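User: My collaborator and I are trying to settle a disagreement about how two of our proteins should look. Neither of us wants to argue from intuition anymore, so we agreed to look at predicted structures for both before our next call. Could you fold the first one, then the second, and keep them clearly separated?

Assistant: That sounds like a sensible way to settle it. I'll keep them separate. The first protein:
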Amino acid sequence: MSASRQDLSAHGFYATPMLEYDMKTERGKPFAYHVYGAALIEASIDVLRGTYTIDRATIVHDIGESIDESVDIGQIEGALAQGLGWALLEDLRFEPDGKPISDTLSTYKVPDINFIPPSIDIEFLPSIENPFAPYNSKAVGEPPLQYGIAGYFAVLEAIRAATGKTLEYYDLPLIPEKIMKLLISEQNKIDIATENHMWTKV
């Protein structure tokens, strides 16, 4: 007796309920809820080498009502690391024909344990009712990635402190090569031999 070869697979998808948005009028409710937060990051730069350290991060994050605080803190710390990598390390480079040349861990830098700030303080914003998620919780995995941009501006502010020049420079990631160009450019000359300029911290 031959097998009947019946398709036993099932297909489905999830659509968040009660969403509606009019692209023409730009009105509506495109998201189930919003997540809020802020980060304050301290950074130091070495003006001789263009390198930097992220010294401290203080974060407040809107998690709704926490289901497990230790898990939520871990998620925020992990997303912060990912965001700092995105803003300061992970430089994608390609050959003219499109072939990637930053394709190994020696050429594509990702955050390691030495890159993460030694001090990370996290506080949760007061809980408010959120009927669109289980137990009044809110997303805590991806939203904290946004705090990486605070690392970018902390390093940029350290460059401003070293040069005395206000910078409007928006080119992620802010790798040491770019930092050196900003430090020794014609517009931002500094005496790199001066000992008290070797490290600038903000």
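The second protein, kept apart from the first:
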Amino acid sequence: MEWSEALTLNGNIELFQVTNNQVYNMNNIGIDFIDEESGMGSLGARAGYCGSNKVLNIHSIYDGTM
């Protein structure tokens, strides 16, 4: 089984909005904002807004449900 994110912002991204989304039935991460990933320094996702999203039924091997 592969592990994935439903919605990911990665890279030199700023002043973004992630709003009014429905994310459900995923096997790892619902919404992911990545900063300082290997080789990127500090040019990751930053200075953004995330709100009014509904994230349901997200499971991972780390939460003991899989």
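Some points you might bring to the call about the second protein. The chain has no helices and six strands. Residues 5-63 form one domain.
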